[in-house]
Amino acid sequence: MDHGAMGHGGHEHHMGAVAGLPMAERADDRDGLRLDRLHVPLGPALPDWPAGLVLRLELQGDVVRRAEVDPVPTPSASGPAFWNEPWLRAMAGEPVTVGEAARRQCAAHLDSLGRLLGVAGWSDAAERARGARDSLLGGAGRDELVPRVRPLMRRLRRSWTLRWLLAGVGVQARGPVGGDAHSRLIAWLDAIEHDLGAVDDSERLPARPLRGPRGRVDTGTPPSQSLLDALPDLLAGAEFACARLIVASLDPDLDELAPQQLPGGHGHG
Amino acid sequence: MVDPAPLWAVAVLPAVLVLAAWATATVDARSTGPGREVLRLLVQQRRITRAADIPLVRLGTTLLPVAAVLAAAVLPFGFRSVSDLPDGIVWFNAMEALAWAAVWLTGWGPNSTLSLIGGYRFLAQGLAYELPHMLAITTAALGAESLRVGAVVDAQSGLWFAVWMPVAFGIYLLSALAMAFWGPFDQPAGVDAAGGAAGELSGVDRLLFLGGRWLLLVVAAAFAVPLFLGGGHGPLLPGWAWTVLKTAAVLGFLLWARRRVPTLRMERYMELAWVVLTPIAVAQALVVAVVVLAR
């Protein structure tokens, strides 16, 4: 039965099939055993998964041996990427207030936070984050939002179980999302608290630098591209639950990658 | 001594457990009540995955509630249990291990990756929680110098074991959550794996499996009462009332715990369980052994 992995290009030509399904072929695992390799696509739709993302995983047991990001299909979007909209509009020369941008950024981080907490299995906190996101987008004022968001932020910062779960997961040495999943979470919390103070600010957004929730939007490359590029290395060798946490802690927004029409009619991206 | 219950109790036991599980699910802040969900699952058509091992899935899903009910056979209600076996604690432990098999079979059977991962996860979870758990329940047996659940209750007529074996009690509460793969230990049926072991179940299969999990949670919580909380002992009220009250208190704590803590990853918990919990459980057993010898 053992044909080995060499030279088959990762597919199961010689293994026969059961009920029309190919058998898993074995390969060496990290502990020096030979285990079945399962080729499993993750996405495009899973609970708390970045919409549209497809990862091709090679699993041994529940450990990810290899991961590839499927090329993102690019349907023409009808509008600018939702989470980057204020900055894209500012880029097109429209007047955008600081408060408007802060509100969108804060909501974007709460959205990511809800997804990460959902994957971390903390549904109570995830629901609170989503509730706060919805009332932010619904236009609630600062005085109404702060008493809702602050206690959640405090609880998340203090939770040693959350730290224990996320510390050391998906460590990236450099880059805009350096650190581990927990430090990325803390960065979101910092940004949320910072932006929350500015949601009612009516000054005009400065023309540069235009930093959206996931990074600079005015450099030509969508910031989520670098997040996607980081995924395969971070996922290789991760246990399945860690892999989900890593994806959620980076939370790439595939909307950014679609070729987009700016509000002014100029093509972008 | 715990008296044997009349024979009809055998028939009543599952019904009582289902009622208790129903009440717990109703009280749980996160659920909208089990009624609608149960009806939905009863009429839902069963989906079957390609090349699924159907007998295995059926066996697994049926085994889970059966294991819970069998474990409850040694559970004293007040001072009566269906069967006060001379080694009731071992029986309880064995039935709980039967639940491991149930979840693993349910995860393996559908020939689907995410449910398979759920099955793997429960085995990893078992390896992580079982060692300190066994030490904790053995400590209670040691304190009573008997593996008979009735004797453990009798030994607590003066002082509850929870008072002088707090470590064993704490570890038992953790493992009660873990054996019902619930709350912070729900990774085997985790959202991140689209429901894990339960991911491919539908209709009656799903009802049996998830209902079985509620039963297991109730039984695991209820077993803390004879082991550590003095069973039916208490002032004024009759024994059965104390059992109900104490069980409700433990269940209330477990429901609350789920809201406060995210899901624990077993590779991390394994470290805690083997490096911290196991040694302190051994130390606790040692303390109890010395007290028993000196008595």
From TrEMBL, chain B:
Family designation: Belongs to the complex I subunit 1 family.
One Gene Ontology term of the molecular function aspect: NADH dehydrogenase activity
Segments crossing the lipid bilayer: 6-27, 56-79, 99-123, 159-182, 214-233, 239-257, 269-294
Coiled-coil region list: none
Membrane topology classification: Multi-pass membrane protein
Keyword annotations: Membrane, NAD, Transmembrane, Transmembrane helix
Protein name stated in the entry: NADH-quinone oxidoreductase subunit H
Species assigned in the record: Streptomyces venezuelae
GO BP terms, alphabetized: aerobic respiration
Main localization of the protein described in the UniProt heading: membrane
Compartment(s): Cell membrane; Membrane
A Pfam short name: NADHdh
GO-annotated cellular components: plasma membrane
